[in-house]
């Protein structure tokens, strides 16, 4: 029989690309992760990884198994959540409050999809939501009496940190896109170099913010020193300003879900950047319903190509 714990470990290994990297969020050693994957291969009778001295590579069988594992684990978590509700005292409220901190673009473009999905009302989760930037939600979670779960993002090594007492679960990577006004007459999806954008007007984050620091370093690495015509930390506003012809912008794919007219997305090979989305909890606050919520949210993110 396949151990569900091994399936969860498989998902982390594929997401992080190595046994050592997967061990960190799981709280295991790299050796323990390797042993679990060996046991899973033995139980299923298929090779899941091609191993070499320097790296591991998931096989097609591993990718297929991971796709089915997500659904199986979600069903298991839902069953546990339902059992928890059923085991409650007679007459008790069957819903469980979940105090959620979430960043704006995730609250705008992903959470409503989950709230409107089939079966959401059957989960017995009553959300109390606080929308804010990652540093705000992490502080609220750390206080211990304001939030149960914080959904945050980190752009590169942007300096965003959290205490080791918090459990971290990776939910996906949100790739940035280079967008320019359609009035510039560049074809959608055209591959161009950073040098071709060097003299164009740009909409940038305010200097000093973590995103601005990472983006500035990326641009400097490809010798791109933008001519800034606007400073804006709101991606939705940046998109509309770009669509109106003001300048180019770098925005995450999540914010492109309601892309305004007048925009063209370009492929600039030198500009590769993503923000990683994490769910944070205090170590003693895990519950089956929280796990169900995160699994369901990850499923919605997969539908909009945020999770591979």
UniProtKB/TrEMBL annotation:
This is HTH lysR-type domain-containing protein. The lineage of its organism: Bacteria, Bacillati, Actinomycetota, Actinomycetes, Micrococcales. Belongs to the LysR transcriptional regulatory family. One of its GO terms (cellular component) is protein-DNA complex. Keywords: DNA-binding, Transcription, Transcription regulation. The keyword Transcription applies. GO terms for molecular function: DNA binding; DNA-binding transcription factor activity. InterPro entries: LysR_HTH_N, LysR_subst-bd, WH-like_DNA-bd_sf, WH_DNA-bd_sf. It comes from Arthrobacter rhombi. Gene3D superfamilies: Periplasmic binding protein-like II, Winged helix-like DNA-binding domain superfamily/Winged helix DNA-binding domain. Residues 6-59 form the HTH lysR-type domain. Transmembrane segments: none annotated.
């Amino acid at each position: 029989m396949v151990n569900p714990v091994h399936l969860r470990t498989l998902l982390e290994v594929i997401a992080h690309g190595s046994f050592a990297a997967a061990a960190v969020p799981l709280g295991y050693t790299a050796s323990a992760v390797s042993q679990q994957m060996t046991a899973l291969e033995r139980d299923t009778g298929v090779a899941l990884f091609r191993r070499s001295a320097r790296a591991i590579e998931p096989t097609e069988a591993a990718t297929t198994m991971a796709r089915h594992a997500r659904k199986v684990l979600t069903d298991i978590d839902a069953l546990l959540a339902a059992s928890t509700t059923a085991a409650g005292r007679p007459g008790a409220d069957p819903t469980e409050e979940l105090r959620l901190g979430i960043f704006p673009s995730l609250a705008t473009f992903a959470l409503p999809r989950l709230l409107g999905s089939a079966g959401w009302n059957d989960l017995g989760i009553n959300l109390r939501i606080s929308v804010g930037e990652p540093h705000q939600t992490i502080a609220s979670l750390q206080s211990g009496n304001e939030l149960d779960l914080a959904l945050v993002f980190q752009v590169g090594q942007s300096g965003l940190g959290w205490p080791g007492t918090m459990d971290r679960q990776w939910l996906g990577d949100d790739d940035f896109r280079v967008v320019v006004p359609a009035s510039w007459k560049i074809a959608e999806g055209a591959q161009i170099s950073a040098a071709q954008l060097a003299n164009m007007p740009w909409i940038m984050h305010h200097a000093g913010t973590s995103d601005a620091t990472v983006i500035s370093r990326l641009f400097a690495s490809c010798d791109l020193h933008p001519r800034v015509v606007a400073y804006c930390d709101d991606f939705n506003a940046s998109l509309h300003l770009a669509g109106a012809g003001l300048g180019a912008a770098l925005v995450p794919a999540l914010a492109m879900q309601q892309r305004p007219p007048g925009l063209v997305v370009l492929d600039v090979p030198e500009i590769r950047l993503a923000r990683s989305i994490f769910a944070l909890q205090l170590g003693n606050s895990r519950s089956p319903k929280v796990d169900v919520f995160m699994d369901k949210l990850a499923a919605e993110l997969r539908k909009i190509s945020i999770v591979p």
